[in-house]
Write a structure and sequence with these properties.
The chain has 137 residues and is low in regular secondary structure. It is 7% helix and 6% strand. It has two domains: 1-73, no CATH class; 81-137, no CATH class. It has one helix and three strands; from the N terminus they run βββα.
């Protein structure tokens, strides 16, 4: 059952959908796709997430936005197919993530900063070398 506020549809787990972009029926359907999620905004098809916004297909995430198919992420944005993330931004196809910033095709990740087409990442900073190589700064 959804309750209606001035601007949102809200389900029993405090997940929200904007009324200007989502009908009540759409919000009900999206709510059913969230398994054990709470305090999320405009999300769908996720499980065990909280405080995320505009995400879909994610699992175990916290405080993320505009992500899809991620798992165990925290405070990420614009991610895709990530895993074990933390403090990421502008990600894509990441894996072992930690302190990433401008990721692209990372893999082993750790304390990255300006990533691009990385592979077996570690304690990075400049990160703009070709796959398999990392620029150290």
């Amino acid at each position: 059952m959804l309750k209606e506020t001035k601007t949102h549809w809200v389900d029993e787990n405090n997940n929200h959908w904007l009324k200007v972009t989502t009908t009540e029926d759409q919000a009900k359907r999206k709510s059913k796709t969230l398994k054990n999620c709470s305090d999320c905004f405009d999300c769908s098809d996720c499980s065990d997430c909280s405080r995320c916004s505009d995400c879909s297909g994610c699992y175990g995430c916290y405080g993320c936005s505009d992500c899809s198919d991620c798992s165990d992420c925290s405070r990420c944005s614009d991610c895709s197919d990530c895993s074990d993330c933390s403090r990421c931004s502008d990600c894509s196809d990441c894996s072992g993530c930690y302190g990433c910033s401008r990721c692209s095709r990372c893999y082993g990740c750790s304390r990255c900063s300006r990533c691009s087409r990385c592979s077996d990442c570690s304690d990075c900073s400049g990160c703009s070398k070709a796959i398999g190589q990392r620029a150290a700064k």
